[in-house]
Amino acid sequence: MSFEDSYGELANRLILEAKSSSELGKLLPYSGPLVQRVIQEQCELERKIQAMKRDGVTTSEHGRWPTLIILARVVEQNKRCLLAYHSQRLDTIATAYWTAGGAVAHVISQLRDDMFRDEITYLREYHQSVVEYRQQLSPTDVIDFSMGIEDPPRESSFVTVESVRDLGGPIRTESGLLDFQLGHRYILLKRDVEHLILQGYLRKV
């Protein structure tokens, strides 16, 4: 089998990885080298197509027309595979974000080894967009975007918590600087502390 006969196989491998990630319900390590090889294949295909057009392969009457059509379709298939692979990864990251109640630091700590640097940037910008949108719709925090649509409305946007693990000093939240003391109880905005509850630093009381 010639190299040309294998065109499209690399992109199909990306789809298989995306399918495995969906079936496992987890983010798999980013396949940077494989993505790069697919992009390189795209460049090679484009050069071949342009060379054929310069050689006069422009109509269906030409003997090499079928080859041109096949190469063009492989280019389109590769594009769809690249988009599908990255779309599945971003969907998985977004799901992890909402599952963690919008706790960016927690998501990054859990997925950092499997995320590409641009995906970390995407997550942070995604969170900033959510924060800005929430502030536009609900400046007083009446709306909690992390609440499922099937859930009943929450009685309060505040929660009472107790500090059960040392945080090692003050932490900065959207509401300002918070300094927790072990064993002390606090009434705080849920959006400021839900990630700390999830990580085991605070306990609801």
From TrEMBL:
GO terms for cellular component: GINS complex. It comes from the Eukaryota. It is found in: Nucleus. Component of the GINS complex. Belongs to the GINS1/PSF1 family. PANTHER family: DNA REPLICATION COMPLEX GINS PROTEIN PSF1, PARTNER OF SLD5. This is DNA replication complex GINS protein PSF1. It comes from Mycena pura.
